[in-house]
Specification:
Elements (H helix, E strand, L loop, with lengths): L1 E10 L2 E10 L10 E7 L4 E4 L1 H9 L6 H9 L2 H5 L10
Antiparallel strand pairs: 1-2, 2-3, 3-4
C-alpha cells in the first residue's frame, strides 16, 4: 500500500521534511515513488503538488496523521471533496 508521509531532510536542529509517496513496507529514508511536497516546520512553509496528491488519495492512499494535518491546514480535502478519515490497521 502506498502512503504519503514525511521524509526527514537537512541538518540537526535545521530539519525540513519532504512529503513523499512511498510503500508502507519501506523505511522512512527508503526510495520514494514520488515526491509530492515540502514542509518546513520552523518557518511554517508548505509546498504541495496538488495534482499528484489528489491522484494518490483517489487511488486509496492513506496519509499519515502528520501529513493529514498538513493537508487539512492547506484545505486540500475541501478543494477536492475527499474526506480524510484515519483508518487504523492492526
Amino acid at each position: 500500500m502506498v502512503k504519503p508521509r514525511l521524509k526527514r531532510h537537512g541538518k540537526k536542529q535545521r530539519v525540513t521534511y519532504r512529503i513523499i509517496a512511498i510503500d508502507t513496507q519501506f523505511r522512512r529514508e527508503g526510495e520514494a515513488i514520488e515526491e509530492v511536497g515540502f514542509y518546513n516546520p520552523r518557518k511554517e512553509q508548505t509546498r504541495l503538488d496538488l495534482s499528484a496528491i489528489i491522484a494518490l488519495l483517489k487511488e486509496g492512499a492513506q496519509p499519515t496523521q502528520t501529513v493529514r494535518d498538513i493537508l487539512k491546514r492547506a484545505k486540500v480535502p475541501e478543494q477536492v471533496g475527499i474526506n480524510l478519515q484515519l483508518k487504523i490497521e492492526f
